[in-house]
Design goal:
There is one protein chain. This protein has 385 residues and is α/β, with parallel strands linked by helices. The chain is built from 16 helices and ten strands. Strands 1, 2, 3, 4, 5, 6, 7, 8, 9 and 10 form a ten-stranded mixed sheet that branches. Strand 5 and strand 6 form a beta hairpin. Helix 1 packs parallel to helix 14 and helix 2 packs antiparallel against helix 3. The relative contact order is 0.19.
């Protein structure tokens, strides 16, 4: 049986990405003991890029990598991601306000709501970037992509490290550039605009990869994936919500949450819908006709796993875990989860919230164990130890 290269797509979403860890933990449980890394290609954006690179660095010891990733998220606290002390938050906030009102005094002075230096220090300690090339050289991994958004060019840039056969690519406002993945790529990919500072890579500043990411599935396909698993972070994906009457003017937290949802969730849902539509079209056209007409369209097997519950609502249940200084910066409650748009769910890197999302992801995936086994069937015939 031909083994198709399997791609893993990990979307962004700040603290919401803890859900992905739960799904990956379940996959580790479902697949046969002794199995090798099931993901040939990994494409991550924002916090999903952090999960993806962590997995890639353990591609030669996949099972250990899953445990390592879970251990990191289970012991998260907000102060490991950004400064939560009063002076740290107030200093960042004052610089942000000053730059908006009177301009910037220093050109290279970062402007953001929060200082995420603690995250940089944490990632430097827990991710072994040198292991990625070793995994590629030994065939345990085909490629890894970290997606960023260029603030000058306006392009979605996929920095990738992979097999020598993979070439750079360029599409409308989308490019793929071979690079050795570093800490700067991760910090740039997770730099939520105005919340975390942008990062300069080579000649340009880059921010969160979810911004202007028109085709989140595309990088994995360019890197050679022939079927893809998508682990999203949008509760009730593809379901239309009822319009609720507005009782008051939207709070800053609600407006910010709406903008984050637009950046992190909408493009992924749209691209998945597009792929399903293409697959339906391809199924109606005989292969002989496609070859005769030179049609490059082909069926891409897709398995999508999304939260079965509203992550905003779960964040609301853990609102008491938000640091006091951040609560003040967000205008009091810092939470708009009760009306369906919570910025809190992106910033609440607390033990209780992360554990709840890991458990949700694990249970959601375990309920779909038959689908997961079927999706990986070709990978594991004759590959168990």
């Amino acid at each position: 049986m031909d083994i198709k290269k399997t791609g893993l797509i990990l979307s962004g979403g700040g603290a919401r990405a803890a859900y992905q860890v739960g799904v990956l933990k379940a996959i580790h449980k479902i697949l046969p003991k002794g199995h090798y890394n099931p993901f040939d290609v990994i494409s991550g954006t924002s916090a999903g890029a952090i999960n993806g690179v962590a997995l890639a660095s353990y591609a030669e010891n996949y099972r250990i990598g899953i445990r390592h990733l879970e251990r990191i998220w289970m012991h998260f606290s907000c102060d490991q991601i950004y400064r939560t002390d009063f002076w740290g938050v107030s200093g960042s906030l004052s610089r942000l306000v000053r730059s908006l009102v009177i301009g910037r005094r220093y050109k290279n002075d970062p402007v953001s709501l929060l200082d995420n230096l603690p995250l940089r220090n944490l990632l430097r300690e827990v991710i072994k970037f040198d292991n990625i090339q070793s995994a590629i050289d030994n065939g345990a991994l085909h490629a890894i992509a970290v997606n960023c958004s260029g603030l000058e060019s306006g392009e979605s840039v996929s920095f990738f490290q992979g097999h020598y056969s993979i070439n750079n690519w360029q599409r409308q406002r989308r490019v793929g550039l071979r690079s050795r993945i570093t800490l700067d790529h991760l910090m740039a990919s997770s730099a939520i605009p105005m919340i975390f500072p942008a990062v300069k890579i080579h000649r340009e500043f880059f921010a969160d990869g979810a911004v202007r990411q028109l085709a989140p599935l595309s990088p994995a396909l360019h890197l050679g994936a022939e079927k893809i698993m998508v682990i999203g972070v949008s509760g009730y994906a593809h379901e239309r919500k009822e319009r609720q009457p507005s009782k008051s003017y939207p709070s800053p937290a609600k407006v910010m949450g709406h903008m984050l949802n637009a950046a992190f969730l909408d493009s992924m849902e749209t691209d998945v819908e597009r792929l399903r539509r293409i697959n339906r079209t391809v199924s109606k056209i005989p292969e002989a006709v496609r070859k005769k007409e030179g049609m490059e369209l082909k069926h891409i097997e897709l398995l999508e796993i999304n939260p079965s519950q509203s992550i905003d609502d779960i964040a609301g249940q853990h609102a008491h875990e938000i640091p006091r200084a951040l609560k003040l910066a967000l205008g009091g409650s810092g939470n708009a989860s009760h009306n369906g748009s919570g910025v809190l769910s992106y910033l609440l890197f607390s033990h209780g919230f992360c554990k709840a999302l890991i458990d949700l992801g694990y249970n959601d995936a375990m309920r779909r164990s038959d689908e997961i086994k079927a999706f990986f069937a070709d990978h594991f015939e004759g590959h168990t130890e």
